[in-house]
Amino acid sequence: MKRSIVLLGLSAVAVSGCAAEGFRNRSDLVAEPSACVAKRFEVYFADSEARLTEPARQAIGMTAAQLQGCEIRKVQVIGLSDARGGAAANQSLSERRAIAVAEALTAAGWPAPAFEVEAVGENAAASSGVQEPMRRRTEVLIDAVPRS
Asked: In this predicted structure, which of 48-62, 115-129, 132-146 has the lowest mean pLDDT?
């Protein structure tokens, strides 16, 4: 019986703490997270393509809208490819993919000087040489902060 009394006593203290005066609004306790933080997203491509798909355009547009009121300090765009094809072809494809994404982000209003565009070509291919659709992408890393 003693154990029950202790538990009831603790729950009474916990409940009474919830009704404490001084906190009338949720915002008094919880701060909304800022949209202006570092973000990362990926844009996927069809086999041997550097043309943006509709889902890719949507991902770019959605991210651009989320960061609209932010200061974009740096955007790193890294083009990748799968193991299909030769080293030179994969490097070229990676470059074209990265440029396509950077151009779409610039068209969405992002500052062009903030971009670092890279292509890793064959270095992104699996060592086994197996075609991997997940490697047909461009990674976008964004450094964003609230405007001062």
From this structure: 115-129
Structure tokens at 12: 């009474």
Give me the residues paired with residue 140 across strands: 41, 77
Q: Count of CB atoms within 10 A of residue 3's CB?
A: 7
SS3 at position 84 = coil
Can you tell me the distance from the alpha carbon of 123 to that of 113, in angstroms, rounded to the nearest whole number?
Answer: 26
Look at 132 and 131; give whichever has higher pLDDT: 132
Which residues does residue 83 pair with via DSSP β-bridges, in sequence order?
none
Helices (H) and strands (E) in the chain, counts: 3, 4
Neighbour tally for 49: CB within 10 Å: 13
What's the CA gap between 59 and 108, in Å, rounded?
12
